[in-house]
Amino acid sequence: MTELVHLDVERGIATITLDSQSNRNALSAQLRQELAGHLDAAFADDSVRVIVLTHAGPVFCSGMDLKEASGGAVAGQEFPRILESIWNSPKPVVARLAGPARAGGLGLVAAADIAVAADPVSFAFTEVRIGVVPAVISVTVLPRLLPRAANELFLTGETFDAARAVQVGLLNSVVPGEHLNDEVRRYTDMLALGGPIALAATKAMLRAQRPESMQDDLAQMLELSGRHFTSDEGKEGMAAFLEKRKASWVP
Prior knowledge:
The protein has helices at about 30-45, 65-70, 80-90, 105-110, 135-140, 145-155, 160-170, 180-190, 195-205, 215-230, 230-240, and strands spanning about 5-10, 15-20, 50-55, 95, 100, 115-120, 120-125, 160, 175. By secondary structure, the protein is of the alpha/beta class.
């Protein structure tokens, strides 16, 4: 079986790369399992000071694998566990985006401590347009987004650019594509200057706003998400997306 997520460690930087390009780096069961495993390995490696989450190919992450979901396979505990592990990681996590993120991919972006994108990158919370709810990712996304923007973007599913993503709190920085690696390196170099114990304690302090409730929130949102993925409306929405047609409810 071809590996869909890679882990490379060099000079204290662990780079985790999503590489399921034929599937637009969708969150398939295999990709979720490998991503969770590589995150655990990076957390456990004492030589790792900073983690960079990035991608191969033109898309950062297109969200859940709708082919799997339309066949009745609803995401289990791996994705909530991935979001929680990134959010609560004792080591800083930097998301690097050279391509678009949709739906569940934005949950990964929001879970990271710092997120940097190239200026052509676009984003969208597309769930409602296929009859499902952006439930699980809301646990990491809503603490980042301005409330008015969250209402707009979650309810409309509108595509927005990287400049807007910075404006509403989803990204830290947007740069021209040719400067993306330099900008990521600027952040990783600064983060590596921090003492690892101090960084972990500072992260815990920053997360203290909602640490105990996160597990319960994710469990509740997973149940809500699963209910809509398996609903008649969700099935129709996913079928319409895969068949490249309008859903039955579109006027």
